[in-house]
Amino acid sequence: MKTGLQLAIAGLGTVGAEVARQVISNNAHFQRQAGMAVTITAVSARDADKDRGFSMQGIQFCDNPLALASMDNVDVVVELIGGSDGVALDLVEAAIANGKHVITANKALLAHHGYMLAEKAEKAGVMLAAEASVAGGIPVLKTLRESLSGNQITRITGILNGTCNYILSTMQHQGRDFDDVLAEAQALGYAEADPSFDIDGVDAAHKLALLGAIGFGTAPSIGAVDVTGVRAITMTDMDNAQKLGCTIRLLAEAEKNTDGEVLMRVRPVIQPLDSQLAKIDGPLNAVTFTGEPIGAITAIGPGAGAGATASAVLADIVDLAVGRITPFFGIPASQLAAAPQRVAPQKEECYFIRLKVYDRPGVLADITTILKDHAISVESLLQSGRSDDGENGDVPVILTTHEVPPQAITAAIAELTELPTVLAEPVILTMGHA
Ligand code: HSE
């Protein structure tokens, strides 16, 4: 590295192209921060000829990204291809095996294979860094791993998916339908290549698994995260949430209980409008770490998009250049505790339930009988309007409950779903707190 740091970038999509543009156009600044020359010597992408807003002069183009892992004039492979397996995994493994440092934004890869890759990187004496993998431009991994390293972390909560947050907050403020706003989020470059990872909560789960691993010192476990996404949320839900003085946000939570078990879940939550989370709009992310002795600390910032994500990649490049190299999980992978298992939630919570039902006499009675059988107390119930098709048409029934054990709500929902007058899978949202 005496001649400077030589980068190879695999993947020139939204983020990869922005990283290249920044390294090239702000090179003097970069060189000052890094204390050495930083150059891009090679790239790989699907389309060699596409104009990405930077000059390819002096940069070797490789059709096969795996070639980057064995080039002599490459010190660090910046993996921005994505995906938990396949080329991204092969490239990162090959780079580490060849003694190259690896910087990636790939949370899926690390949530699934992070333990193995960190162990290999530590044995090979190379850096594995991925600040961009969680919460885009907010330096949450660094904060948790370094600034909060003296704390016993007990809880990590937050909004970890910019696409979902953009969709939900735009529905809230503009009254537009889910699909319409999703298309916009994709066009703005927030969404994953496969947006189902965003809207089904998988992307947030990957990020939560990594935060949980670093915060609680365990191997990452994507299987331990209970995930519900936002695909089922409609403007009916958003309108009713607003009637209750609330909105909807996709919340990720990881919590260590007194038995040392780690409960991790991603789910849409009805959030009071005056709460901090309800004010997180657009592609912003927000992450709160709770621990001893600090109490709670919240970081808010851009969680998706080219600039935010590139910013985190650039910081990893500078860290590498100046020798700020830490194990990816804060402690060596070999010292991590076993990956947590899925834990059933125990805490009583209030719920918002939307049912699509026939508009007929007796339907509400059937519903409330089931709720009574499970000792579920209703706080509010709303069925308004009339279907154009009369008793053969459907209407939404919205109800909220007092505090209920999670097992009771699960059992009641299973029975409600079986009623012949209930026409679709119920939508269940937890009522969040201020
Ligand atoms: N697709 C992600 C999001 C951005 O919407 O938050 C990259 O992590």
Strand % is 15-25%
User: SSE order, as H and E?
Assistant: EHHEEEHEHEHEHHHHEHEEEEHEHEEHE
Tell me the structural class.
alpha/beta
Tell me how many strands there are. Answer: 16
Q: Could you characterize what this model shows?
A:
The protein is an alpha/beta fold. The protein folds into 3 domains: 4-104, NAD(P)-binding Rossmann-like Domain (Rossmann fold), CATH 3.40.50.720; 140-304, Dihydrodipicolinate Reductase, domain 2 (2-Layer Sandwich); 350-431, Alpha-Beta Plaits, CATH 3.30.70.260. Helices cover 35% and strands 23% of the residues. It is built from 13 helices and 16 strands. The chain has helices at 14-25, 27-34, 86-97, 107-124, 140-147, 162-174, 178-187, 196-199, 202-216, 235-243, 306-322, 363-373, 406-418, and strands at 5-10, 38-44, 60-61, 76-79, 101-104, 128-129, 152-159, 225-227, 246-256, 262-272, 284-292, 295-302, 351-358, 378-382, 394-401, 427-431. Strands 7, 8, 9, 10, 11, 12, 13, 14, 15 and 16 form a 10-stranded mixed beta sheet that branches. A 6-stranded parallel beta sheet has the order 3-2-1-4-5-6, sandwiched between helices. Helix 4 (107-124) links the parallel strand 5 (101-104) and strand 6 (128-129). Helix 3 packs parallel to helix 4, helix 4 packs parallel to helix 9 and helix 6 crosses helix 7 (178-187). The mean pLDDT is 95. L-homoserine binds at residues 136, 161-163, 190-192, 198, 203, 303-304. L-homoserine is lined by residues 136, 161-163, 190-192, 198, 203, 303-304.
